[in-house]
Amino acid sequence: MTTTERTAASFFLPSEEPLGLINADGAPVAEPALEMPADDVLLRLHRAMVSGRRFDAQATALTKQGRLAVYPSARGQEAGEIGSILALRPQDWLFPTYRDSMAVVARGVDPVEVLTLLRGDWHCGYDPYRANVAPQCTPLATNTLHAVGFAHAAKTKGEDTVALVLLGDGATSEGDTHEALNFAAVWQSPVVFLVQNNGYAISVPLSKQTAAPSLAHKGVGYGMPSVLVDGNDAAAVHAVVEQAVARAAAGGGPTLIEALTYRVESHTNADDASRYRDRAEVEAWLTRDPIARLERYLTDRGLLDDAAREEISARAETEATSLRERMNTDTVLDPADLFRHVYAEPTAALRRQAEDLTAELSLGAEE
Amino acid sequence: MTATLESTSDTLTMAGALNRALADALGEDERVLVFGEDVGTLGGVFRVTDGLAARFGETRVFDTPLAESGIVGTAIGMAMNGLRPVVEMQFDAFAYPAFEQITSHLAKLRNRTRGAVELPIVIRIPYGGGIGGVEHHCDSSEVYYTHTAGLRVVTPASPADAYALLRQAIDSPDPVIFLEPKRRYWEKETVRLDHRSSTLDRAVVRRSGTDVTLISYGGALGITLEAAAAAAEEGYRAEVIDLRSLAPFDLDTVAASVRRTGRAVVVHEASRFCGYGAEVAAQLSETCFHYLEAPVLRVGGFDIPYPAPNLEKHHLPNVDRVLDAIERLQWDDAAPLTNTEA
């Protein structure tokens, strides 16, 4: 285990203003502190964000049709969700939260499997080892420690794997975030912490969440390089995450990134955001839309025309249609599944309970 | 289960037997890691990890920052990535900050992922009283864990069992809460170091008898065996069962004994209200009702926060209380002990 040498606090400090590459109006930022991703990366970011938003809208619609028990929308956060995922290498791992379905889909997990949790069929619908995505985490901040442990094991085994963990502004108040940042810094684990600061933890605004100058500032206390980035700028998010992944992979240890963004929709479909925030605030943020600005930038540069936009939009629509159709079938669940996967082998007590349930069900079938 | 070519044995304390089990596991499987607070250079506050860091290096045996949730949470990530962590919570009540990681993730990840994620993690927790410890150092916290599906909960009561159970716990594909009765750390016994044949989830009969079954585990097994010996002098032949595994509960072994004796007393250090004895009593009344000559009694601690060291002797079960329970069971209208009703 290595211990960090004492380094001047200024080394770890984030910038005063969020780093950016593309302004809200689609114009490139003058004298940016980051390198603009290559054109093909920008085009992939745009396409994936359009697909992501369509997926998000489809999932929201599925709650209204009663197909999903609940859905926490990430609309408006496409730059954070997609910008970070496309910066990962195939061998890297993602540790997402419940709001990051869009990111999990972008990582390559079948959208139906991603929504299995929210449909209520099983707590995690996908095999984490297939696309290197941990189960979506519902308790806040607990996934940060899993990511650190996973990354530490990779380092111990000499594997070139970086763990990206997603968390929100509310999660930064949890003890586990503190412990994870501290462990990762002391161990110099290959982890990237990406806080998507979307302004609210359900109804509680950031001003009641923290007194820190920014959430990125929290990294300084742990001895961790910290970055504040415009979370609605997919190019900038991609650039800082890519940099952090490269540093972690090279043995440079963890990075804390705060992506400043906004949750356009309510916490979930069950929440009423009008009780705690003004419409004017939401509308002001809508003018900073992550997709519109990248689209404008790409169009101005001649990389995107109407035909291409239509093709991208049509493809997102096809994906949504496929998702809707596949979600519109009633799944058949096996009650015996209740007793599977509790232990490697069912205990005697579980075997008895499974027999009881089978008897109960066969009795019910006779009636 | 690894076959061992030749049998070796040694006279060890329980702490020494646990140390040997960790050393043997570390030596046999490079995926095994030992970490926690003060387990490295110091060798643990009870010296259970003594010498392991020097022998296996800091990559295998190491001190962590002081953070229990961090220890369990990172262990979960490490196990997801193919390692087999054995972590130490320094004292029973110090494990509570890790409770969320244990109940929400450690116990459930296999289930949440339909078996894709396996977490072969052992959490060692020195638990229970009887050593004059100050507050937060003496809790009997077993039922917090036994109530959580997905965890195995075991507790040895002897050096030999400590060795065997810890080896089996480390081999287990399921997460194991390994409760070490700290009052028994210094008891000595000859330990067979190839003794890995008994299964993780079986109770054992420590003393045979025909008149009453005494069911106990961990720190309370000592006074239970003493009580059985004292009862013999009064003419009661008590059978003593050491549960060893609290989850799963070996109902078959216990019920077979109670069906023969018709009488049962559960003895543990923890408070009686919603304590482990309540579960044993309930299962015996459900499965052995027609064999019982008297209600199943419980001898346990009072329903109070663990008391200050100078008062703990009044709280902890003792031989007289067990004998008193045995005495009460011999009457047709056997009555419960008076120290408990909530």
TrEMBL record, chain A:
Alphabetical keyword list: Oxidoreductase, Pyruvate, Thiamine pyrophosphate
GO biological process, any: branched-chain amino acid catabolic process
One Pfam family per UniProt: E1_dh
Source organism per UniProt: Amycolatopsis carbonis
Domain Dehydrogenase E1 component residue range list: 47-318
GO molecular function, one term: magnesium ion binding
Protein name listed in UniProt: Pyruvate dehydrogenase (Acetyl-transferring) E1 component subunit alpha
Gene responsible for this protein: pdhA
Entry cofactors: thiamine diphosphate
Entry keyword annotation includes Membrane: no
Automatic annotation (TrEMBL), chain B:
InterPro entries assigned to the protein according to its UniProt record, in alphabetical order: THDP-binding, Transketo_C/PFOR_II, Transketolase-like_Pyr-bd, Transketolase_C
Enzyme class, UniProt record, top EC level: oxidoreductase
CDD domains to which the protein is assigned, alphabetical: TPP_PYR_E1-PDHc-beta_like (cd07036)
Protein name: Alpha-ketoacid dehydrogenase subunit beta
Record organism: Amycolatopsis carbonis
Domain Transketolase-like pyrimidine-binding: 12-187
PANTHER family assigned to the protein according to its UniProt record, in alphabetical order: PYRUVATE DEHYDROGENASE E1 COMPONENT BETA SUBUNIT, PYRUVATE DEHYDROGENASE E1 COMPONENT SUBUNIT BETA
Required cofactor names: thiamine diphosphate
Keyword Hydrolase: no
GO MF term list: magnesium ion binding; oxidoreductase activity
Classification lineage: Bacteria, Bacillati, Actinomycetota, Actinomycetes, Pseudonocardiales
EC number: 1.2.4.-
Keywords: Oxidoreductase, Thiamine pyrophosphate
Domain of life: Bacteria
